Amino acid sequence: MKYSVKILLLLPAFYFSLYGQAQDVNELIAKVKEKLDKVNDYTATGVLKTDVVFIKAPLSNVVIYYKKPNHYRMVKNGGISILPKGGVSVNMSSLISNDKFSILDAGETVINKIKTRIIKLLPTDENSSIVLSTLYIDETTLLVQKAVTTTVDNGTYELTMTYGKYAGYGLPDKVIFSFNAKDYKLPKGITLDFDEKTKPAEGTDQKNKKGKVEITYSSYTINKGISDEVFK
Amino acid sequence: MWQLLKIELYKTFRRPRTYIAFGAIAALIILLQFGLTVDGQEYADFMLQNLGNFEVQGKMLNGYMVCYIILQLMLVHVPLLVTLVAADMISGEANAGTLRLLLSKPYDRGTIVLSKFFAACIYTLILLVWVALLALFVSMFLFGTDDLFLMKTNYIVLIKQDDVFWRYCCAFGFAFIALVTVASVGLFFSALAENSIGPIVATMSLIVLFTVLGTLNLPVFDTINPYLFTTHMTMWKEFFDEKVTANNEVIAGSIQDMPAIIHSVIILFIYIVGLTGATIFIMNKKDILS
Q1: 0.90 exceeded by pTM
Q2: Which residue of B has its CA nearest to A56?
């Protein structure tokens, strides 16, 4: 009897703790969104580095344009760039720009010595290109330290952010996109490299099938207005 | 020697056969450029299908890439065109009955052979300049320039625009050495015959045979492949590969395997010196009966 009474007394507490956490999570996302909403548009300059085992590409100077809610474009100052499909345009603002997702609390963890809250966003829109997003948010600074996004067409990407002087706007100084890179191989009849010997890039882990694209931002020009023509 | 060289060049460029190679090269390159102008984007899209979950932004099909495609197709066949002239140098004179008259000049046979060899080299150089003009400069004019995006069998190389032109200069320089090797093979066979058909066919057959052996990638041929001159003739492609750091960052202006290129140059020079020396030896010993 006493045991069952204890359970009955604990049940409301359990319910309220869950409800309280759910509120807490919704509130956290709302605060992060509010912070990111300060930025209506930006033009950023940066350096792009493609780090994939079968790609030898030099560093590139790029200009990135963003406009609410989800217009994003990266332009290289002349030349050719190799980018993962769909992944680079994934950014925090576009991830939580709409309310069409369910929020789940998935606990806490430590990333780069920063305690973060794990929040899973499940899109409610059946036509969404995103299947699941997992955000790792620093509750103190309301900054997303890491995001793992699974898309319908382009697999899973992991974004790791490092913040600096633009942290007040929620804009990172460095973003690392990690993704699974499929094996690359072309028939010799197409490449005409009949004398080709297997020579993958030096100094890289040949078994590591993860690819990375790093963007190191040097400057942001925020809320100065960007024409829609830029994104066409 | 200079006088002999001038005479040899006059004889070479007086023959209509000499210009077959220039015409063939022009026709082939123009056709390739026309094809890439019309369907080049489809070709590029076809290649990019194999890129998996990556996309390429920028002008992939530019003059530098078109030139690379042309050279890949052509530098297997240009040696055959060099053979047409080089393998005719001595045997053609024997066939025409002018060899005895030539050797009666107050020059030793070695000097005469060398003058023919240098004339073949100059012809090769002019032919290669012709290839460079059409394949590189006309392509740059038609397609513009941008970074060079190369999809090799196992990996992709992206070379910045300002890092490409000097590589082409080096590649053509290497191609010159490779074609002079072919010319020395043709000259060698030419010294053994009394008419031109035999040396021309023999040289062409040897090039085709060695190329096929090198392409087959069968282990049984792995022991001889490093010694075949055709194996080393394709090393010009190594100029279009870059070194990377431990962090997979490209080192601008670098060449992935310079020692391999130097090794191939040495092998080709050995062939040139050896075959030309053998030709001189044969001509010194030969009884001219024609």
Answers
A1: no
A2: B157
Q: HEC profile for B210-262?
A: HHHHHHHCCHHHCCCHHHCHHHHHHHHHHHHCCCECCCCCECCCCCCCHHHHH
CB nearest to A191's CB, from B147, B152, B243: B152
Tell me, yes or no, if B247 comes closer than 8 A to chain A by beta carbon.
Answer: yes
- Write out the residue range of the structural domain in which residue A155 sits: 2-231
Please tell me the total count of domains within chain A: 1
A88 interfacial to chain B (CB closer than 8 Å): no
DSSP A108-132: EEEETTEEEEEEEEEE--TT-SEEE
The CA distance from B21 to B84, in Å, is 8
Tens of pLDDT, residue by residue over B243-273, are: 998 888 899 899 999 999 999 999 999 999 9
Local structure of residue A20 (DSSP, 8 states): H
Q: What is the pLDDT of residues B213-231, one digit of tens each?
A: 888 878 888 888 889 999 9
Q: Give the residue from B70, B159, B237, B244 with the most A CB atoms within 10 Å of its CB, the best one to mutate.
A: B244
The CATH number of whichever domain residue A176 belongs to comes to 2.50.20
8 Å CB contact of B147 and A80: yes
Give CA–CA dist A25/A108, Å, rounded: 12
